[in-house]
């Protein structure tokens, strides 16, 4: 049995590029994934200066973390995406790359995309924070 999840886009709110304004989870266990960074298993930054490569690594890392708790991208109930840029074109491209990634379904839920000035690791361009309703 999976947690019951309902995604809602009220008619009175603007259309979205794939996410939902509201995600309601009835009950169950929840996992909060730490911000997934573009680091390989040894802790080295992947793709210095290459946003697409970093997004691919973040997606791969998030997929591993989801699998570790018995979840899939469709179990994500909330995402926050941080991208080091103030350029809306770059932010939009990051969104599209993530929604086309191995965890793309994670971003059909309540999602927020934020442009920031810097992240925790030198050269880091992207980080993704996920909240998951764990299946029973």
TrEMBL record:
InterPro entries: RutC-like_sf, YjgF/YER057c/UK114. This is RidA family protein. SUPFAM superfamilies: YjgF-like (SSF55298). It holds the Pfam family Ribonuc_L-PSP. CDD domains: YjgF_YER057c_UK114_family (cd00448).
């Amino acid at each position: 049995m999976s947690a019951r999840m309902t995604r809602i886009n009220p008619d009175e709110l603007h259309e979205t590029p794939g996410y939902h304004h509201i995600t309601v989870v009835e009950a169950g266990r929840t996992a909060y994934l730490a911000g997934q960074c573009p680091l390989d298993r040894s802790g080295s930054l992947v793709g210095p200066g290459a946003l697409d490569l970093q997004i691919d690594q973040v997606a791969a890392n998030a997929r591993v973390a989801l699998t570790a708790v018995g979840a899939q991208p469709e179990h994500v109930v909330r995402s926050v995406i941080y991208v080091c840029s103030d350029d809306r074109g770059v932010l939009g491209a990051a969104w599209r790359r993530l929604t086309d990634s191995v965890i793309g379904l994670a971003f059909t839920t309540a999602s927020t995309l934020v442009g920031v000035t810097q992240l925790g690791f030198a050269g880091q361009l992207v980080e993704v924070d996920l909240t998951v309703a764990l299946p029973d």
